[in-house]
């Protein structure tokens, strides 16, 4: 019993150290966002309690974001692109996964193998060909150019497909024999039974799009379509870095995914663990 207690204490200390390594930089960014620019690094060396407790509290950084920097439009762009990607992406990827899991057609295994390859290849490899395609379609510097390339996602198709594979085929075939069309089966039977994996897929699409930086940099040129990850690079200028505004923008950029993930984390875990990955 004493050995078990010592192991528990050891793992508790390890987890505490990891938590500090993860949370302290976030805490420093949060505190620094409420400081004047001249006070950001004043108490970093030597390290003291003032490092994480501001001596002069100000909301100038947040005020500047929405007045001088136009972050209202930037947040609207990011929410719009992310929301449309999640809604349309869940529909497209689940339909593809339903076909891969329940239908037989020529080249099915080859196509699914190509789907698996898509989320194993770094995005940097396909960035230039994708830009040429989007440019040919006339979608550069448009919402189409930001949204459409992020709709189809190989990992999301894989998650849906593995979940659908565990669904009883007899249930779907009996509904089809009773006169239900495959579209009706998909909307009335399959998707209502797929709540955990649907939430997991939606969260993955949300995070992919919310945290996207390279593609929005490539695909947009004007401030009209700027998203939050790209906007945060504007705080670094030739002569200075506006650290307080950058930390404020980072805080807001982190806060939104956290508020989305925390209430849905139970479904996210259920969706990932119930997709047949264990096979």
TrEMBL record:
SUPFAM superfamilies listed in its UniProt record: MetI-like
Please indicate which superkingdom the organism of origin belongs to: Bacteria
Q: Offer one Pfam family short name for this entry.
A: BPD_transp_1
The UniProt entry, under PROSITE patterns, shows: ABC_TM1, PROKAR_LIPOPROTEIN
Cell compartments where the protein resides: Cell membrane
Record's CDD domains?
TM_PBP2
Alphabetic keyword roster: Cell membrane, Membrane, Transmembrane, Transmembrane helix, Transport
> Any stretches that span the bilayer, and where are they?
9-31, 74-99, 111-131, 143-164, 185-208, 242-262
Give the protein family: Belongs to the binding-protein-dependent transport system permease family.
Q: What is this protein called?
A: Carbohydrate ABC transporter permease
* Originating organism: Paenibacillus radicis
């Amino acid at each position: 019993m004493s050995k078990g207690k010592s192991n528990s204490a050891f793992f508790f200390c390890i987890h505490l150290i990891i938590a500090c390594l993860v949370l302290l930089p976030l805490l420093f960014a949060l505190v620094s966002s409420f400081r004047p620019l001249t006070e950001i690094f004043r108490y970093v060396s030597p390290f003291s309690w003032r490092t994480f407790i501001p001596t002069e509290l100000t909301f100038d950084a947040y005020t500047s974001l929405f007045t001088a920097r136009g972050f209202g439009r930037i947040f609207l762009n990011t929410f719009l692109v992310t929301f449309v990607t999640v809604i349309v992406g869940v529909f497209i990827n689940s339909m593809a996964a339903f076909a891969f899991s329940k239908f037989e057609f020529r080249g099915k295994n080859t196509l699914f193998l190509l789907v698996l390859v898509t989320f194993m290849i770094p995005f940097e490899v396909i960035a230039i060909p994708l830009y040429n395609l989007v440019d040919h379609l006339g979608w550069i510097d448009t919402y189409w150019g930001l949204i459409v390339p992020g709709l189809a996602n190989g990992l999301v198709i894989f998650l849906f497909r593995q979940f659908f594979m565990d669904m009883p085929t007899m249930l779907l075939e009996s509904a089809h024999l009773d006169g239900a069309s495959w579209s009706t089966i998909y909307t009335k039977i399959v998707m209502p039974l797929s709540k955990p994996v649907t939430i997991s897929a939606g969260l993955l699409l949300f995070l992919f799009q919310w945290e996207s930086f390279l593609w929005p940099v490539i695909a947009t040129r004007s401030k009209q379509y700027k998203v939050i990850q790209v906007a945060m690079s504007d705080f670094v200028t030739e002569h200075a870095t506006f650290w307080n505004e950058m930390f404020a923008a980072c805080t807001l950029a982190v806060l939104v995914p956290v508020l989305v993930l925390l209430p849905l984390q139970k479904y996210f875990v259920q969706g990932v663990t119930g997709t047949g990955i264990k096979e």
